[in-house]
Design goal:
Aminopeptidase, 7-stranded mixed sheet, alpha+beta, 9 strands, 220 residues
């Protein structure tokens, strides 16, 4: 079961608490910075939480949104992605993902797949995120190879933000980006023992993204 948790959702507090707990367990972090919109994946029958991931558009009708990854970049994210791919990139087509927390080993993979579907359905073109090697490897195992934009240097963060992340930066995170449509096509063509289950998450995420887009529901 996949659903979207905006700031005013009744389950928002519980989902943020889950993210906080998992980052504390993994990195001794004390995270209180959350993306404006969260994607939640639960067990169909029991409702048990598998994984959560957050997203933030780089630009909305209200204007530019400062992305967390831009702390690590020497120029605006659209310029960094454009330079990496050798083409013009519009800021309004970019979305940042973060707050990825999983309750079981397969949860993160399903979150990546569901997010790819949702972001494709919503109409975003580019994704950017910070990833430690374990998360980057999860993308690779799914056949996706994001491009590295920068090293995530904690010295670029405000001191209070840096302290909140515990041991996270001991894992040498990097800022990665990718073209969302390429990821969707890769996942849609997977041939693995789990491909049917993953494709279901991809397509459900896609249709939810289309539904949100048709109703002009903002991800802020």
């Amino acid at each position: 079961m996949i659903d979207i948790i905006p700031r005013d959702h009744h389950a928002r507090g519980a989902v943020e608490a889950f993210i906080h707990r998992r980052f504390a367990e993994c990195y001794q972090a004390d995270v209180h910075s959350f993306m404006p919109c969260l994607l939640r994946i639960r067990e169909d029958g029991s409702g048990a939480l598998h994984a959560v991931a957050g997203l933030r558009p780089a630009q909305t009708d209200q204007g530019r949104q400062r992305l967390f990854v831009e702390y690590y970049l020497d120029r605006p994210v659209e310029e960094a992605i454009g330079a990496a791919y050798g083409e013009q990139v519009e800021r309004r087509t970019i979305v940042e993902i973060g707050n990825l927390a999983e309750n079981d080993p397969g949860g993160g993979r399903h979150a990546i797949v569901a997010l790819t579907g949702f972001l494709t359905g919503y109409g975003f073109h580019w994704v950017v995120f910070t990833a430690v090697s374990r998360l980057a490897n999860a993308f690779s195992r799914l056949g996706m190879e994001p491009i590295t934009l920068a090293t995530a240097d904690p010295e670029r963060l405000p001191p209070e933000e840096r302290r909140a992340w515990g041991r996270y930066y001991e894992n040498s995170p990097k800022v990665l980006c990718g073209r969302i449509r390429d990821g969707f096509r890769t996942l849609d063509s997977l041939q693995t023992p789990l491909s049917g289950e993953l494709r279901s998450s991809l397509l459900v995420g896609y249709h939810i993204g289309r539904w949100w887009r048709r109703r002009d529901m903002a991800l802020v």
